[in-house]
Specification:
Residues 1-23 form the signal peptide. Keywords: Signal. The protein is an alpha+beta fold. The chain has one domain (28-146): Alpha-Beta Plaits (2-Layer Sandwich). Helices cover 46% and strands 28% of the residues. It has four helices and four strands. It has helices at residues 2-24, 46-67, 104-115, 119-129; strands at residues 28-41, 72-77, 88-94, 133-146. It has a four-stranded antiparallel sheet, with helices on one face. The chain is flat and about 50 Å long. The termini are far apart.
Length: 147
Amino acid sequence: MKTLLKFAVFLFATLALSSNTLADTRSYSQGTVWEVSYIRTEPGHFDHYMDNLQSKWKKFLEAEIESGTVISYKVIAAQPGNLEDWDLMLLVERPNFATYDKGPEYYDEIAKKVLNQTREQGAEATIERGKIRTILGNRLGQELVLK
């Protein structure tokens, strides 16, 4: 029994050391997490949507920066490649995937504090934004930092 236990400890130590060695040989390390949203604004509503981003989205993300769940955010504008393409890309950089474990109560509290908005008012605002933009898709990815 002692021999089996010694062998198990030896095997575990060997595997642990070899996995650390493998990790050290990677040509990259894991970086921050990026949320990417592709938005198509409705004709004539680009400036209205940008005003909405400035007055609500930015305030919300600034509060998340203060709490440490967001590092940075960006808005990228581009000419659509076709009638179904996006004209705005929204990017939000988070430190890691653990920031998504906060739960809906966390976000409700930020909305209440920063936007003076209840969950119901937030839902109504989302419906109103839907009239001036279409979300074409969202992506979630992790930056890989080359060594």
